[in-house]
Amino acid sequence: MKLPAFFIAHGSPLLALEDNEYTRFLERLGQDLGKLRGIVVFSAHWDSPEQLITVDAQHETQHDFYGFPEEMYSLTYPAPGDPALSNRISELFKENNLAHQPVLGRGLDHGVWVILKKMFPQADIPVVALSVDSLRSPEEQYTIGRMLAPLRDEGILLIGSGGLVHNLRLLKQDDTPEQWALDFDAWVAKGLAVWDLPSLFAYEKQAPHVREAVPSYGREHFVPLFYIMGAADEGKRAQLMIQAYQYGTLSLNCWMVD
């Protein structure tokens, strides 16, 4: 059975400790997906001009954040890797003439493990992490995702981990979303509903409040959407699974595409 693919916002690393509507949604989603052969995650926290692939047999846990409660630094997500799956991804990239490199010993960044810790707390499903390139065009990002579409028929779950509205410089003390954040998310939702690639690819010129929602220093959080949309190019269907907000300017959304 062909698996859907997902864009999942990872929000603040504190999600790993929190119990709220969004974390409970992630827990249910993991339960509903059941046993998988593997998980592949395009992470906003691995931004590179070259396509990179983890090839570890066993992952360490990165604590790539600072200023958080001490408990955060004791959390681990000791998921195995899958060198065979990494090699399969490499083959798909080679077939499509995409330059790429294997990376050993990087560990899983919090863009990967925070959401997986909620979805699959046993950490017993093999994980392969992939970099994104925030400076590629949306068309290129979409094309790279499309290269991995065959994995959806092979029991592999594809995830893009980021955040559609992600502006750390405008955080508030409460979670009430700013109107501009709501407007931006609504614009993206409208485009996804009809798979309007020309508009979505031109988001930097067409989307309302794009400078606030996707600041120049935070583009890497938005672009996993295009990678994961590419993996669903055959069906071109999108469904919003949940919409919530943290600190007013971090949107917590999950889009399922198939």
UniProtKB/TrEMBL annotation:
CDD domains: 45_DOPA_Dioxygenase
Alphabetical UniProt keywords: Dioxygenase, Metal-binding, Oxidoreductase, Zinc
GO MF term set: dioxygenase activity
Short name of any one Pfam family annotated for the protein: LigB
Keyword match Transmembrane helix: no
Extradiol ring-cleavage dioxygenase class III enzyme subunit B domain segment(s): 5-247
Cofactor(s) listed in the protein's UniProt record: Zn(2+)
InterPro entries: Extradiol_dOase_DODA (IPR014436), Xdiol_dOase_suB (IPR004183)
Family: Belongs to the DODA-type extradiol aromatic ring-opening dioxygenase family.
The protein, known as: Dioxygenase
